[in-house]
Amino acid sequence: MLAGGLLLGGMATMVLTSPRPNVEGMVGQAERLIEAKRPNEALGVLNNRVRPLLDEPYVTAGTRQRFHAGRARAIVLGIETMDVEAISNHERIVEEYEKAEQAGLDLPSDDRVRLIRSQIRLGRLDVASIAIDELPEEAAEARVTLRRQLIEQALATPTMDEFSDEQLAKMSEDPALSVDD
Question: What is the maximum span of the chain, computed from C-alpha positions, in angstroms?
């Protein structure tokens, strides 16, 4: 009986003191793969190794933010490098950036630009217009490009004439607009 108790106590100690998976390190690995332009491998790490652990109590909000932003970035990179322009990819990009924001991430300008691009592709023109207006001055060039894409999408939609006119007026007032635009 004593031996059984010692065995049970030893097993409990082993389980309670076993090292936790380094989720933050796995997210970092995925971020490096994204920087190396290897989106499929990055998504493999994020989906197969990180996602099953994401709800564990030891995973920080910062790691969750990086996970969701990383998934969005990897999908964007996949679209860019493999020319896979599917609506479902843009839906996933928007979902992942929204989850990153819900986890507390203040999206940097480059991520906001990627998010807006997907919102335009999905036809969420009102939301995209507001987001374009909120882009900081450091993203002025991207703001003009996004506004142009927004107008093109609106012009392709029969019921969006008034919206297109409003966007053209906003674009013409943008100080970042050049003669070539």
Answer: 88
